[in-house]
Amino acid sequence: MAAQCVTKVELNVSCDNLLDKDIGSKSDPLCVLFLNSSGQQWYEIVSSKKLTRPLALRNGRPAGKGSITISAEEIKDNRVVLFEMEARKLDNKDLFGKSDPYLEFHKQTSDGTWLLVHRTEVIKNNLNPVWRPFKISLNSLCYGDMDKTIKVECYDYDSDGSHDLIGTFQATMTQLKEASRSSPVEFECINEKKRQKKKGYKNSGVVSVKQCEITVECTFLDYIMGGCQLNFTVGVDFTSSSGDLLFPDSLHYISPNGVNEYLTAIWSVGVVVQDYDADKMFPAFGFGAQIPPQWQVSHEFPMNFSPSNPYCKGIQGIVEAYRACLPQIKLYGPTNFSPIINHVARFAAAATQQQTASQYFVLLIITDGVITDLDETRQAIVNAAKLPMSIIIVGVGGADFSAMEFLDSDSGALRSPSGEVANRDIVQFVPFRQFQNAPKEALAQCVLAEIP
């Protein structure tokens, strides 16, 4: 599949004449697209640009006059448009209260039809709404053509689906991008039916574009296709908090069928990440164990006990190194993350100084316990946030992982003990037990969430 994934395709789905399945209001349609992976691929749909088919019920009978249309186009433009918009003095379309306005953006296709590409939030009971900032890809908005006409419609939302048109206007990106907070670009919202009926009609309100900024937003796939090399390093927690590995209640205990929760996590998460590493050679380290021959505690020892060549071939190689390592070490402690984070950070720092193909480093830590060196780890993460590096922490077992949630600073920027703020959020914590029975796609989405 990876070899075939050489382009991005945008699908736009619309339906006409749907059956009304509700009594007191209109249907609330949901469209689900299924990808057939059994050998029959979607190339015909993608290449045909536009496909319309009649809808059928589950028993095969026609669903009234309902039809579905799928428009496909290749995406080669990764520019996005950031909008800030508001309106004033909109027409009131409600008898009780005020209008609940929202905006719809439409682009014109090659056959002249208008295609809905974006709908804003609904602002309740307000004739002078201010919408939250929103993004639309430039390709979705106007095929990347700055002079192509865009239609914007303003509606009054009704819960029964009979939304009332307040007014509409048309513009081009060339006009819209002139907007700034100090000098907004304004458009009269025109309701053509009302203008024809009402003498002296001026408009149905004014829509003000306060910001229209075009930026380039590269995706994960853009970087991979652009030559960025991802380097994955695996760190496994061998502290004694998981219990004696000779007893079944230990997370390191290998059951008669040859697995444990560590192995399951290594395999499940590894399958997600290995496809993005070109050479499939992964450095794999253990931490928190006493290792031979001196039996000193180490927090960054190669699981294959080869300091000069700590690489394992593929996920299977990591699994084999883990199995071979277990009988040779003694689980100990404490649970220190900072040594292995700093270890990978040194390679990331060295890579930034080389004028070669771009490289990005991902450290995957699989742990079962409460972190011991929290302050040192915070400092290590803040330092690493300046480098091309991300950290995925997978928690196995049922321990208290509140410290891991803290490091995954989704609710606020992580700070070092001295108060230095991390440049960005580079840590993603994954509570593995929540995903053991989930689809692979759900785990993949969570695992890769903090990789930019």
From TrEMBL:
- List GO molecular-function terms, semicolon-separated: calcium-dependent phospholipid binding; metal ion binding; receptor tyrosine kinase binding
UniProt entry keywords in alphabetical sequence: Calcium, Cell membrane, Cytoplasm, Membrane, Metal-binding, Nucleus, Repeat
Q: Which SMART domains match?
A: C2, VWA
Which InterPro entries does UniProt cross-reference here? C2_dom, C2_domain_sf, C2B_Copine, Copine, Copine_C, VWF_A, vWFA_dom_sf
Q: Where is the C2 domain?
A: 64-187
Superkingdom of this entry's organism?
Eukaryota
Q: Name one GO biological process term.
A: cellular response to calcium ion
The primary location reported for this protein is membrane
GO CC terms in record: cytoplasm; nucleus; plasma membrane
Pfam families given for it?
C2, Copine
Q: Which SUPFAM superfamilies match?
A: C2 domain (Calcium/lipid-binding domain, CaLB), vWA-like
Q: Where in the cell is it found?
A: Cell membrane; Cytoplasm; Nucleus
Q: Does the keyword field hold Calcium? A: yes
Q: Which family is this sequence assigned to?
A: Belongs to the copine family.
Protein name as annotated: Copine 3
User: What species is given as this protein's source?
Assistant: Myotis myotis (Greater mouse-eared bat)
